[in-house]
């Protein structure tokens, strides 16, 4: 290659290098300009919080930010706790809008995972917000809500870690018991208001027996026979299978003796379990659960339920009666800022176990419609599978504590639970089995009515005592209750038993009177017959005597002839003749 050619090649290379350098410089200038513009724009925007994402955190920064915004609510809320992403994030609170608590909810989890404390946290905050609360105190743990809690180093470390400003606080509490069994104001219901459908559920009746029981209730209603207690019901059934009552029920279809026998046997067993004291008067007015204190706090009503394991159907069905009674009595209010009452239904699986289709339909309808009456319901149970799908679909807020999967059935239930949640950044099967005590997976209905993001939450601690209230405090609270004067003493009014007993006694007396009249008539007839017979005999005697008295007097010859006709007469004549001749000989 000649020198001129080399010079040309060198010039070309230098030109290419210069163009590349120019392009690089231009890109660098553009990048610097863009960076400056971005910095300038950043100055005009509010600073975004820095999210510390630890190595084992399941969520990235974007999902954490989504959860933060999903629970940023403007109205009054119930503070549930703080998001867990490796560590608890106190700046990412998890909440439930109070206005949405009448859209119902579910608190679920295995035994010992903290469901009762979650219930207490919700009840305390509702009370503080002026919302009355009703809850069944299955184990007695909830009674501690009436006592200020005790501080400890461990407790404060936990509450500070989730941003909770914990203060010991007691809340206004009223204690109730079913029919006077236990410590509290007695809650009773009449058999009539309890209804045939719920009673059939308690007694475990089949469809035929249930319809027959409904017929008995219908008969009592149209005939003005109040069914106050179980004795009233038994008396009506016995009457309707008696000769006196069969005719009354014939045109309504009748009641077979076999079916009546089954119902009566179940009623006797039911009463023997202590259920007879749950029915009676004075009947409890469920509006008492809607009371608030003069300072505006809602009263927490706790129903003591001892021995629920022995009478699960009665317990659950009685709570359902309370809800149904509220539904019937309360007016429509639509959407309101806060509920009139929030009802916690603990051990909810007992309600649905062995329930008939009609009973499940009644529950579903009550849950669906009672929202418009201003009442919220939270079902508390071990797994969402305990609640029928139609009911579960009505529950807007869900707090799911740890689930365990030790058996194939448990694993199936776990997978079914996971499928009911919205999409999230969690492996929920793994997370649900690894939740600590006092932690839960939460999703709620936000203020717009949409589901909030799924959030692994470390829950707040109750401000009341986590131990049962002292017995003397419970007794003093019950004794001071203004409701004791109204409901404390059971009464026995004039009801179906007394009315039918009086009716049957009157019928028996009438029958006895008829029998006595019949006997009297029979005796009268016998007397008159005897009198006629006597009179007939007298007439016969008179006629004979008369005939004898009209006959001619006997002559001497008749007399002697009669004497000669008899041996004794002949002897007498011989003696007379001998005497005559003896007399003549002496002369």
Can you give a write-up of this model?
The protein is 50% helix and 12% strand. It is α/β, with parallel strands linked by helices. The protein has a 12-stranded mixed β-sheet, with helices on both faces. It starts with a helix and ends with a helix. The model is unreliable at 41-55 and 583-587 (pLDDT under 50).
Short description:
With 587 residues, the chain is of the alpha/beta class.
Name the descriptors:
587 residues; alpha/beta; 21 helices; disordered C terminus
Strand residue content? 5-15%
The count of helical stretches stands at: 21
Overall SS class: alpha/beta
Order of strands across the main sheet: 2-1-12-11-10-3-9-8-4-7-5-6
Alpha carbon gyration radius: 48 Å
Mean pLDDT: 82
Large-scale geometry: elongated
Q: Strand tally, please?
A: 12
Helix content: 40-55%
The biggest sheet, with number of strands, parallel, antiparallel or mixed sense and barrel status, is:
12 strands, mixed
Our measurement of the CA-to-CA distance between the termini, rounded to an integer number of angstroms, reads 238 Å
Uncertain stretches: 41-55, 583-587
Helices and strands in order, then pairings?
Layout: H1 3-44, H2 61-70, E1 77-85, E2 87-97, E3 105-108, H3 115-128, E4 133-137, H4 153-161, E5 173-178, E6 185-187, H5 191-194, H6 196-203, H7 207-222, H8 230-240, H9 243-250, H10 257-272, E7 300-304, H11 312-329, E8 341-346, H12 349-352, H13 357-369, E9 375-381, H14 389-392, E10 397-400, H15 408-419, H16 428-434, E11 439-443, E12 455-459, H17 471-480, H18 484-487, H19 496-549, H20 556-564, H21 567-586
Parallel strand pairs: 3-9, 3-10, 4-7, 4-8, 5-6, 5-7, 8-9
Antiparallel strand pairs: 1-2, 1-12, 10-11, 11-12
Helix pairs in contact: 6-7, 6-11, 7-10, 8-10, 8-19, 20-21
């Amino acid at each position: 290659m000649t020198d001129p050619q080399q010079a040309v090649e060198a010039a070309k290379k230098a030109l290419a290098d210069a163009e590349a350098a120019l392009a690089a410089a231009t890109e660098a200038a553009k990048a610097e300009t863009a960076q400056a513009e971005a910095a300038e724009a950043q100055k005009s925007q509010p600073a975004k919080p820095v999210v510390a994402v630890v190595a084992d955190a399941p969520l990235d920064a974007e999902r954490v930010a989504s959860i933060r915004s999903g629970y940023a609510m403007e109205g009054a809320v119930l503070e549930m706790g703080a998001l867990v992403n490796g560590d608890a994030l106190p700046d990412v609170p998890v909440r439930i809008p109070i206005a949405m608590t009448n859209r119902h909810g579910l608190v679920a989890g295995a035994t010992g995972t903290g469901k009762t404390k979650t219930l207490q946290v919700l009840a305390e905050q509702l009370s503080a917000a002026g919302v009355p609360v009703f809850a069944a105190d299955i184990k007695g743990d909830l009674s501690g809500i009436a006592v200020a809690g005790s501080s400890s180093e461990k407790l404060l470390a936990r509450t500070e870690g989730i941003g909770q400003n914990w203060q010991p606080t007691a809340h206004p509490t009223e204690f109730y018991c079913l029919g006077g069994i236990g410590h509290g104001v007695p809650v009773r219901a009449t058999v009539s208001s309890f209804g045939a459908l719920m009673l059939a559920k308690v007694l475990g009746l089949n469809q035929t027996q249930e319809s027959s029981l409904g017929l008995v209730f219908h008969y009592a209603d149209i005939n003005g026979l109040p069914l106050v207690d179980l004795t009233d019901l038994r008396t009506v059934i016995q009457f309707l299978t008696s000769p006196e009552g069969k005719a009354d029920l014939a045109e309504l279809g009748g009641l077979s003796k076999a079916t009546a026998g089954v119902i009566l046997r179940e009623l006797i067993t039911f009463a023997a379990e202590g259920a007879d004291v749950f029915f009676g008067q004075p009947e409890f007015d469920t509006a008492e659960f809607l009371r608030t204190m003069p300072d505006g706090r809602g009263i927490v009503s706790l129903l003591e339920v001892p021995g629920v394991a022995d009478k699960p159907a009665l317990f659950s069905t009685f709570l359902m009666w309370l809800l149904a009674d509220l539904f019937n009595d309360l007016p429509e209010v639509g959407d309101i800022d806060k509920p009139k009452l929030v009802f916690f239904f603990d051990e909810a699986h007992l309600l649905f176990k062995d329930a008939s289709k009609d009973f499940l339909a009644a529950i579903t309808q009550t849950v669906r419609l009672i929202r418009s009456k201003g009442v919220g319901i939270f079902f508390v149970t071990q797994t969402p599978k305990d609640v029928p799908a139609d009911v579960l679909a009505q529950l807007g807020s869900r707090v799911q504590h740890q689930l365990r999967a030790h058996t194939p059935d448990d694993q199936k239930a776990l997978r079914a639970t996971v499928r009911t949640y919205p999409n999230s950044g969690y492996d929920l099967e793994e997370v649900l089995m690894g939740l600590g005590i006092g932690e839960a997976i939460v999703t709620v209905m936000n203020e717009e009515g949409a589901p909030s993001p799924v959030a692994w939450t470390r829950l707040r601690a109750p401000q009341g005592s986590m131990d049962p209230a002292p017995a003397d405090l419970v007794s003093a609270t019950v004794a001071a209750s203004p409701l004791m004067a109204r409901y404390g003493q059971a009464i026995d009014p004039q009801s179906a038993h007394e009315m039918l007993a009086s009716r049957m006694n009157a019928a028996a007396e009438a029958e006895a009177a008829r029998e006595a009249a019949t006997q009297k008539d029979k005796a009268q007839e016998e007397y008159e017959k005897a009198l006629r017979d006597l009179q007939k005999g007298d007439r016969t005697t008179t006629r004979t005597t008369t005939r004898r008295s009209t006959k001619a007097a006997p002559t001497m010859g008749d007399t002697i002839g009669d004497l000669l006709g008899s041996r004794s007469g002949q002897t007498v004549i011989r003696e007379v003749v001998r005497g005559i001749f003896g007399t003549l000989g002496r002369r």
